[in-house]
Design a protein that fits this description.
16 strands; single chain; Rossmann fold; 2 domains
Length: 485
């Protein structure tokens, strides 16, 4: 493969790392590379990214075309219409990239510039509304080659604006666009560094990146689930989701107008108890509220706090958990929500339908422990108010104590007995519900005990997990390898 970057002109005085380079340095470095050539298509917030390249100078060496189809009829004529009539969608962004890349290949002659590599950058965004009620969001992406006439690679991300001013959001978008284009060509070999440097000259209180997916030959070894974890671990997102296929998905799309059943756990590994909790609580949730399964999202949540329980995040350990949940066909959420009420607040931002939480009795006891709410001005009362204010229903799975007694939501004992009247209030409101028809023999199964059996080569663990999980655990030797993030 030829070195397509051999003709880069050295920027005099540039002695800083990529992370600290000024935007003008980044754009000029790209502009002065005669092999990088492409188009810009920006909808919704001005031509903010292209503007940086024009201002840096020598833009004609980089920009084949820059456009913005603001009028809906013009946009539809160019990129066709969307079934749902929306414009700020991932599907719209893909259509933009498809169209623009096709034009590059049709209209530009490779024989004149055999070493040239093409790219198309696009974004479709909605900035803050006049009433400042909705801060805005957008899809941003780049499709690019990393060798002449090679296959295209793609980086797609979704952002949530946090600033309260249109001009500030436009500037933020422009900066992000420059960082993305620069990263695509100069940092694609290190996706984590690329993601980290998307915030070069930006702050995390300016925007949140809640979805990112890498694809193409340059990223054939990239696991997008790890990229999700990286976003949360570095504070770039409060929560991210990925589907059974391992691809990152937009939380807003998954939760929008859906009833939600949330299951939080370590899932290290998934046991028959986890599946029993899920199936029984889902059936009760649907029946009690007369809901349909097609309008209900089931989310398995792993918190960053849980992943850090053993110290640093173990990347392979995380992938092992994800592999099992994906194999069972579940949607997974990785979050930094230590408290349950934060997870419920997050879901409520996207859906004002019914929300339910499935947990074990020990976790229910902890919810009513004041020590978990010392950071709130209103303490435990504020925490409980925020947790239950949206009509949350908690489905509690029984627990077998040391005396072999079955503990349920009916005979539960709290750490602070004076809180029992408050607990009883939520119980009487039918917001705390026992999971019924559980199997007594399964109450002795715990993930940490199953994990210990696996690591000690005690084959009795196989009866404690679903058959699919057992097969994957054995075939892939999960939870046996160690590799730090």
């Amino acid at each position: 493969m030829s070195n397509i970057f051999a003709d880069d002109l050295v920027l005099q005085g540039d002695r800083v790392t990529d992370q600290k380079q000024a935007l003008s340095d980044k754009t000029l470095k790209i502009n002065l590379n005669k092999n990088i050539y492409g188009s810009f298509s920006e909808i919704g917030a001005g031509q903010e990214t292209a503007r940086h390249f024009f201002r840096a100078g020598a833009a004609s060496r980089t920009i084949a075309k820059a456009m913005s189809a603001y009028d809906k009829q013009f946009s539809d004529a160019i990129y066709t219409t969307e079934p749902d009539g929306r414009y700020v969608t991932e599907n719209r962004l893909h259509k933009m990239l498809d169209h623009e890349v096709q034009l590059l290949e049709e209209r530009l002659d490779h024989t004149e510039n055999p070493n040239r590599i093409y790219f198309s950058y696009a974004n479709t965004v909605a900035t803050i509304d006049f009433a400042k009620k909705f801060k805005g969001h957008g899809w941003v992406g780049i499709r690019f080659q990393n060798e002449p006439q090679g296959e295209f690679n793609e980086i797609i991300l979704h952002i949530q604006f946090k600033e309260n001013d249109v001009l500030l959001q436009q500037r933020t978008l422009g900066t992000l666009g420059v960082n993305l284009i620069y990263g695509a060509f100069y940092q694609y070999h290190d996706p984590k560094k690329l993601i980290y440097n998307l915030y070069d000259h930006l702050d995390k209180d300016q925007l949140e990146i809640d979805t990112i997916n890498f694809s193409g030959p340059a990223f054939k070894n990239v696991d997008n689930r790890l990229m999700s974890l990286f976003l949360v671990k570095n504070g770039m997102a409060d929560a991210v989701m990925f589907g059974p296929n391992g691809q990152n998905i937009l939380p807003a799309n998954t939760l929008f107008r859906k009833n939600v059943l949330l299951l939080r756990g370590s899932f290290r590994p998934v046991t028959i108890v986890n599946i029993n909790m899920y199936q029984k609580s889902l059936n009760q949730f649907l029946s009690k509220n007369q809901l349909s399964i097609d309008k209900t999202a089931v989310i398995f949540e792993i918190t960053l706090n849980n992943l850090l329980a053993l110290g640093e995040v173990d990347e392979q350990d995380f992938l092992d958990r994800a592999e099992l949940l994906c194999a069972l066909g579940h949607t997974v959420m990785i979050s930094n929500f230590k408290e349950y009420f934060k997870a419920v607040d997050y879901i409520w931002n996207y859906s004002q339908e019914k929300i339910a939480l499935t947990i074990g009795i020990p976790s229910l006891i902890e919810i009513f422990d004041a020590k978990h709410y010392t950071n709130l001005p209103g303490g435990l009362f504020e925490g409980l108010g925020r947790l239950f204010k949206h009509g949350l229903e908690i489905y509690a799975y029984p627990f077998l104590n040391e005396k072999e007694e079955v503990i349920t939501a009916e005979n539960i004992e709290l750490h602070d007995k004076t809180l029992k009247p408050i607990y009883n209030y939520f119980k009487e409101q039918d917001q705390i519900i026992d999971i019924e028809n559980f199997e007594l023999k399964n109450l002795k199964i715990f993930s940490h005990k199953v994990l210990k059996k696996i690591q000690e080569n005690d084959d009795s663990w196989e009866s404690d997990v679903p058959e699919t999980v057992a097969t994957l655990l054995k075939e892939n030797k999960l939870f046996r390898k160690k590799e730090s993030l």
